[in-house]
Write the C-alpha cells for this entry.
Amino acid sequence: MSATDRRVVAILAWVLGLLVFFLAIARAADLRYLDSDRWPSDLYAFTHLDSGPLDVAVLGSSRSAFGLSPSAIEGCLEREARRAQGADYTVVNLARYFSSIVGQSVVARDVLVGERTPRMVLAEVSPGLVNDYYNMLYIDVGENGRIGDIPACLAATRDGRTAVSCARPLLRGVENVSWAVASRFDELRQPTWMMTYKGGGQFCFGGAVCKDHNREYVDGMSRYWKRRVKNMVPIIKTERFSRFQVGEGIAHDYLGKLIDWSDENGVELVLVNMPVHKVYQQEIPPEDYRAFLSYMQRLVAERGVRFYDANDDHWQQARPLYFDPDHLNDKGAAQLSRQICREVAAPALARQQ
C-alpha cells in the first residue's frame, strides 16, 4: 500500500470514527428524532413525554397524520366505554410524511417500547407503502432508518439518489447534535404543540383552540386540491407504480418484523388501508391494486393480523372530506377517526379488559 493509499484509509477511518462518535452522543442524549423534518408528527417531543401507558398508536404516512386524530379517537373510545365507568384512554399519532412500512416498522420497534408499548397499533398500508420499489423509500430510510437498515435499503435501490440516502443514517448523529446545539427545534412549534397536548397528527377536536387550529390550516390549504390534481395526479402511475412488487422484498421483510414485534409484545396490530379520492384511485393500476389486496388477505390468513379497508366507494366519492386527492381535511378526519374507533378500536380494547 502506497503512502497516498494509507492517508486515504486513515482519513476515511477518522471520518467513520467521528460519525460513530456523534451517533453515540445523539443516542446517549436521546436526540435520535431531533431533526429539521418533523412534520406532521414530532417523534422527538413524543420520546420526551411522560405519556404513560398507551392504548392506541397510529403509524403511517401523512395520510394517517391527516386522517386519524388522537383526540377524536380518544373521545369516541370514552363515549363507547361510557365515561361514567371511569374509562380514560391515551392515543398518539406517530405518522410521518412518506413513511412506508419500512419506516413504520423501525419507529414501532425503536419507540414503542417499555411503558410506551400500546395495546393496539393502527399501521397504514397501501399499494404504494408496501411496494418493495416504493418511490419515496430513499426519504423514508433517510428519515427513519438505522445503521442496520442500510444493507436492505441499498439492496432495494433503483438510482443514485436512493443509494446516497440509504447511507444517511450514518450522518444522523451529526444532524441531531447540530440541531440540538443550534436550538433550531424551537422554531417548529406546531408539531410540538400537537404532540404535547393532543397526541400528534394534523387535526384535533375538543375546544375553541382546536377549532381555530383546524380552520386556520384548512383555509390555508384551500387551493391545494387544484394544484395537486394538476401537478401530482398525472404522474402517479409513472412515479409511484413504474415498478411494483409485494410480498417478497424489503417492504415484506419489514412488515414481517412489525408483525413479529406485535406478537412478541402482545400488541393488537391492525393494518389500515387509508381512503383516497377516486381522482387518485383511478390512477393506481388495477392489477397492482388487486395484487395489494390479495397480499393483505394472505397476511390475514398466514400471520393472523387484521386488515381494515377504509378505501371503499363511500370514501372515494366523498369530495367534501378531502383537501387534496389523497389527504382528508378536518371533517374527513373526524368522520374516519370515529368510524375506525367504533368498528375497530373500541371492540378490540373492550375484549382486552
Q: What stands out?
A: The beta strands are 56-59, 91-93, 120-125, 268-273, 306-309, 322-324, 327-328.
